[in-house]
Amino acid sequence: MRRDLDPWVEGYLGYLGEMRRMAPRTIVDVRCTLKKLGAFMQAHSPGTPLWKLGLDDYLRYLQHEREAGSSEAVLGKQLSHVRGLLDYAWRSGRSERNVLDGFSLQDGIRQSAPRTLTIDEAGRLVQACSSRRGADRRHRLVILLLYGCGLRTSELRALDVPDADLDRRELRVNSGKGGRQRTIPVPSAVWTELLAYLAERGGKRGPLLRTEIKHRRITTGEIASIVKDAASRAAIAGKVTPRTLRHTFATHLMDRGVDLAVIASLMGHRSPGETGVYLHVLPGRTSAAVRSLIEEEGDEE
Question: Is 100 within 8 Å of 82 (Cβ atoms)?
Answer without folding.
Answer: yes
